[in-house]
Amino acid sequence: MRSCRDISALVSQGLDKKLSLSERISVRLHLLICSRCRNFQTQAQFLRKAARRYADDWESRWRKK
Amino acid sequence: MTVCELTEQSLSAQRPVLFRYALLQLKDCELADDAVQETLLAAWQASASFEGNAGLRTWLIGILKHKIADHWRRSARETTIPVFENLAEEDEDCTEDDFFLDDGHWNGGPKAWSDPEAALNRQEFWAIYELCQNNLPPKMARIFMLRELVGLEADEICRDTGLSDANYWVTLHRARLRLRECLENRWFNPSNKEARHA
Questions:
Q1: pLDDT, tens digit, for every residue of B19-76?
Q2: Which one-letter DSSP state was computed for residue B7?
Q3: Are residues B94 and B70 located together in one domain of the fold?
Q4: A11 Cβ neighbours under 8 A, 6+ residues apart
Q5: Do residues B195 and B185 make contact, with C-beta atoms less than 8 angstroms apart?
Q6: Is residue B1 part of a domain?
Q7: Which chain A residues contact residue B20 at CB under 8 A?
Q8: Which domain holds residue B128?
Q9: Separation CA A40–CA B101 (nearest Å)
């Protein structure tokens, strides 16, 4: 069994690259039973969305300064 | 692009990424505009020397870095000249140990957030977001911003910063752990007492 520490790192990597089959299976099984890692996954995706939104407004924000 | 032909369109399509890259370095829109303009002009004039192997964006960022360095050389009144890659040095206090127990379980760990989407429409949220992002240690902040704000790919960031692949993934992950925790403590669940890095 992989730990939350390992799984969260894989979740993070999974946002940016395709994980191996065994990694994907480990993550999926772990997320079934672990709400905190599930929360991490949702929140990491949210961070990406927020960062992109921030970047979109970045220019206008700076121009106002 | 098999024949690596440069067109005005293919160059200007890269403008947003270049601008955000320049803004990250120069922290000034006018200067960033100028640097990007000079870069595109230089690229256009030197298009014959573009080999296409490294990819258009990598090539353009290479030129842009020179333009930014030129700017810093010109502005001699600046007391400290910022450097590009001080990333060899590790951020202090940057392990995952605070986030996990010895057995690998979360120490505290991500709680459910109620309605994060709504936060995106709140001006106060963005002040907190900016604060949390600025609170990241320098190397983490740079990697995170190159990836999520500028929009570079992992291999481009590794080339740009000289970071190893493994180091890149670890650093980006730690940035997410921190940013997540900071937002949780300061916005989504401010009653959290354990504000470690916030």
A1: 999 998 888 888 999 999 999 999 988 887 787 766 888 889 999 999 998 888 887 6
A2: -
A3: no
A4: A27, A37, A40, A41, A44
A5: yes
A6: no
A7: 55, 58-59
A8: 87-198
A9: 16
B70 with B98, same domain?
no
B107 close contact with A: CB closer than 8 A: no
B117 & B186 share domain: yes
Token reading at B168: 């890149």
- B114 and B178 share one domain: yes
Judge whether B72 is closer than 8 Å to chain A, CB to CB. no
| CB within 8 Å of chain B, chain A residues 20-39 | 35-37, 39
Q: Residue A37 is which amino acid?
A: C
Is residue B142 domain-shared with residue B112, that is, in the same domain? yes
In 3D space, the residue among B22, B116, B12, B107 whose CA is nearest the CA of residue B71 turns out to be B22
Model confidence band, residue A65 (pLDDT cutoffs 50, 70, 90): low
Question: Could you tell me which chain B residue has the CA closest to the CA of A4?
Answer: B105
- B70 plus B111 within the same structural domain: no
- Per the document, the length of chain A is 65
Q: What is the ipTM, given to two decimal places?
A: 0.93
Instruction: Give the Cα-Cα-Cα angle B9, B13, B14 (nearest 5 degrees).
Output: 130
Chain A residue with the nearest C-alpha to that of B110: A36
Radius of gyration of chain A from Cα atoms?
A: 16
The whole-model pTM stands at 0.83
DSSP B73: H
Number of residues in chain B: 198
Q: Which residue reads 């400290």 in tokens?
A: B80
> How far, in Å, CA of B116 to CA of B15, rounded?
31
The verdict on B180 and B122 lying in the same domain is yes
**DSSP designation for B148:** I
Task: Name residue, tokens 């079934």.
Answer: A32
